[in-house]
From TrEMBL:
Annotated InterPro entries: Haem_Oase-like_multi-hlx
Top-level division of the source organism's lineage: Bacteria
Official protein name in the record: Uncharacterized protein
Length: 194
């Protein structure tokens, strides 16, 4: 986690030094991953162990296909420069890892990976929101979204889901999914810079 929190992307967004071209690529890259996150939550709906988990993942699918999709459409349309050609393809590593692990491990893998990714975003966005110099506009809106109480509650719910996973899932496997997701997140965010 500490390595992920020191990523160039996190550092530059927090300091407000990321270039318009690099953030344009991020908007393209992250919008593409939102589609993967939607699929992950959809798989979690299918494998949900109870009604609470089913409803929470269904709400996530809805938010990803409405609120977040709308954010990316508006942000990309208003951004001063377009993404460079092939930006989304440079960052396919995160989707490949997440979908492969989800096929392998089903609901437990999805919850563990999403907990890793969302914990990363909650931590760095909270720090950036509270102590950073994130530029106003689309960038600060994105950071604030990942530092607000609703997002914090979502991460707390993911933590509870991971804690409630069956004891017969080896700790080594959970650790592999968690750290693998963070490693893929690092590669994904480094791809913003070509």
């Amino acid at each position: 986690m500490e390595q992920a929190l020191r990523m160039r992307f996190v550092t530059e967004v927090t300091a407000g030094t990321i270039s318009d071209a690099d953030y344009a690529d991020y908007l393209e890259i992250e919008a593409a991953f939102v589609e993967t996150a939607t699929r992950l939550h959809g798989l979690a709906v299918w494998g949900a162990p109870d009604r609470t988990a089913l409803e929470r993942n269904a709400r996530a699918v809805h938010a990803l296909t409405t609120t977040q999709a709308d954010y990316f459409r508006a942000a990309r349309a208003a951004w001063p420069v377009p993404a460079r050609p092939g930006a989304a393809r440079r960052a396919e590593v995160l989707s490949r890892y997440a979908l492969d692990a989800a096929r392998e491990g089903g609901y437990p893998a999805v919850m563990t990976m999403l907990f890793a990714a969302e914990s990363l975003y909650l931590t760095w966005c909270t720090r950036a929101h509270e102590r950073g110099t994130v530029p106003d506009g689309a960038m600060s809106a994105w950071v604030a979204l990942h530092a607000d109480q609703a997002f914090r509650d979502g991460v707390r719910a993911l933590a509870a889901e991971v804690d409630a996973l069956p004891d017969d899932i080896p700790q080594e496997r959970l650790t592999r999914w968690f750290t693998g997701m963070l490693e893929a997140e690092i590669a994904f965010h480094d791809a913003v810079f070509g």
